[in-house]
Specification:
The complex is a heterodimer of chains A (182) and B (344). With 182 residues, chain A is of the alpha+beta class. Chain A has seven helices and seven strands; from the N terminus they run ααβββββββααααα. The longest helix of chain A is centred in the middle third of the chain and has 22 residues. The relative contact order of chain A is 0.15. Chain B is α+β, with helices and mostly antiparallel strands and 344 residues long. Chain B is 18% helix and 25% strand. Chain B starts with 26 loop residues before the first strand and ends with a strand. The chains are: A alpha+beta (182), B alpha+beta (344). The interface between A and B is large, with 41 and 44 residues.
């Protein structure tokens, strides 16, 4: 099974990205979708303007891409600046800053470790979906905790747009869900 | 922090009312000049002394007849200059305000001149500010999209602390390229985004001796669709081609490719993860992404480890900077070792 980090590295350096996404756009965390018999991986690319001391500005994602896993074939490419659904978004105005509250206590090593944990949990989920391993309720809980912790709250609407089902299951905080259900 | 407004039955903070009696003073605003008001402005008296000290603007952003954006601008110290802004927004137009923010101008360096903003934001509409941050003039301009003329700008740009190439302290027989000469072509880009344009301009100037205006090339690239607050990796050659240089785009490049190009009188524009070569950004929690383009102008083999010599427009000390080969290769790897060889 191809580890998700290797898959994402392949995306980052493939021709679609090289040709269509301006440098300086970073990839968000991957979101999984199952369509028919295929597992798809969706990501968005967004710009961050680096500033030290937790003042890095996060701009709205501009591109959403979906790839077939593990072949890496492009399934869809959306330039959100040209998408009517996002016409009200000001892509030149930050939506938030890095780091957000949930990860502010982590030092650089701890932050990288959490990312590794998240990707390892995603690998276990992908393996399970491919019939290669178990994915218990504890794994499910861990993955949700890691996604909830590591994803930037200001980018959550865009994660939801990538896959409402994945978002509701792994990213949306329970209290947020409760409020939105009201 | 409590909300600053009392909007009758819709929005109450339970303790303070600043807009009472203001209805008769409401002024319609017609932004688009179609004769139909798009917003309503009304005076506010935030200190409760009976004298208005600010303006609240109610706007119907989506034209459904309901206010979904409310902004108050206030002069808190009575000097005639607005120094406090508060915003409430209904971003999903469901009738409930789900975002609020308050911004206050302040003097960060204590010299008596306003030079920054403290911003508090409530991104989930629970009336509690989750984040508070202080921004200088430049950061505020980026964040708000508004260059506040009242804020004193920072005069210093970002310096990464590079060691610059010095022909007097190396064995020039061990150097390929003309880094000392090319250093004269270095330029500081001053803003985020146009690094690849600057890298191409620096490469072309180094090869031809011509003086090219980067801003003019940014205009060209924007018009042609080669630049949109950044450049796609495969567009790193477009300005060079526009200027008349011959180029060859490649991936999976290596040090040998760089060496051969320099030896043949060319220059190389490479896409890198700038964070991995900017020493000043070591504390940034950044992902591994190609986010920057630089010009390779030489390689110095005289030390234990070869040094790749770059003209980097992204930092104020970026002329002929010396980056150890291993560090450079790590930074270059994130673009899949993408590069453009250029020849005049």
């Amino acid at each position: 099974m191809m580890p998700i980090q290797e898959f994402l590295k392949g995306i980052n350096t493939n021709d679609v990205v090289r040709r269509n996404i301006p440098m300086g756009r970073g990839m968000g965390y991957p979101v999984l979708k199952i369509v028919g018999e295929r597992l798809l991986i969706s990501v968005f690319y967004y710009r961050s303007i680096l500033h030290p001391e937790d003042k890095t500005l996060l701009m709205p994602p501009e591109y959403m891409l979906t790839f077939d896993y593990p072949s890496g074939k492009l399934v869809s490419f959306e330039n959100l600046r040209l998408h009517s659904q996002y016409s009200s978004v000001n892509f030149d105005k930050p939506v938030g800053t890095f780091r957000h509250e949930a990860i502010r206590h982590l030092n650089k090593t701890e932050y990288r470790d959490k990312k590794e944990q998240l990707f390892a949990a995603v690998d276990r989920l992908i393996a399970h979906l491919g019939g290669e391993g178990e994915f218990h309720s504890q794994d499910e809980k861990e993955l949700a905790e890691l996604y909830g912790m590591m994803t930037e709250p200001c980018l959550h609407p865009f994660y939801r747009a990538l896959s409402p089902q994945f978002y509701a299951r792994y990213i949306e905080k329970k209290e947020d869900r409760h409020v939105s259900e009201k | 922090m409590k909300a600053f407004f009392d909007f009758g039955n819709e929005f109450e903070d339970g303790s303070q009312t600043y807009l009472s009696g203001a209805n008769s003073m409401m002024q319609p605003i017609d932004y688009d000049g179609d004769g139909i008001p798009d917003a309503i402005a009304t005076p506010v008296d935030i200190d409760g002394d009976g004298i208005p000290d600010g303006v609240a603007t109610y706007e119907d952003v989506n034209g459904d007849g309901m206010f979904d954006s409310i902004m108050a601008t206030v002069d808190t110290n009575g000097d005639g200059i607005t120094d406090f802004t508060s915003v409430y927004m209904d971003q999903n137009f469901d009738g409930v305000m789900d975002y609020s923010a308050a911004a206050m101008e302040l003097d960060i360096n204590g010299d008596g001149i306003v030079d920054g903003v403290i911003l508090a934001e409530d991104a989930d509409g629970d009336s509690v500010f989750e984040t508070t941050q202080i921004m200088d003039a430049e950061e505020w301009a980026w964040y708000s999209g508004y260059q506040d003329p009242m804020l004193e700008p920072s005069e210093e740009g970002f310096s990464a602390g590079y060691e610059q190439f010095d022909p007097d302290s190396t064995n020039m027989d061990q150097v390929v390229g003309d880094p000392a000469g090319d250093a004269q072509c270095w330029d500081y880009q001053e803003e985020n985004g146009p690094c690849a344009i600057y890298a191409q301009v620096m490469a072309y100037e180094a090869m031809t001796g011509q003086d090219i205006d980067p801003d003019e090339m940014i205009e060209v690239a924007t018009e042609q669709g080669w630049y949109q607050d950044g450049t796609a990796i495969t567009d790193m050659d477009k300005i060079l081609n526009y200027l008349g240089a011959e180029t060859e785009f490649g991936v999976n490049g290596d040090m040998e490719d760089l060496h051969e190009c320099l030896e043949n009188g060319g220059r190389i524009v490479v896409a890198v993860d700038g964070n991995e070569i900017w020493e000043g950004n070591q504390d940034v929690y950044a992902p591994n992404n190609p986010n920057h383009a630089v010009t390779v102008i030489g390689i110095d083999y005289s030390g234990e480890e070869p040094m790749v010599i770059l003209n980097d427009s992204g930092t104020m000390d970026g002329h002929a900077i010396m980056v150890p080969e291993s560090q450079f290769m790590d930074a270059w790897e994130d673009s899949g070792y993408s590069y453009v060889e250029a020849y005049a």
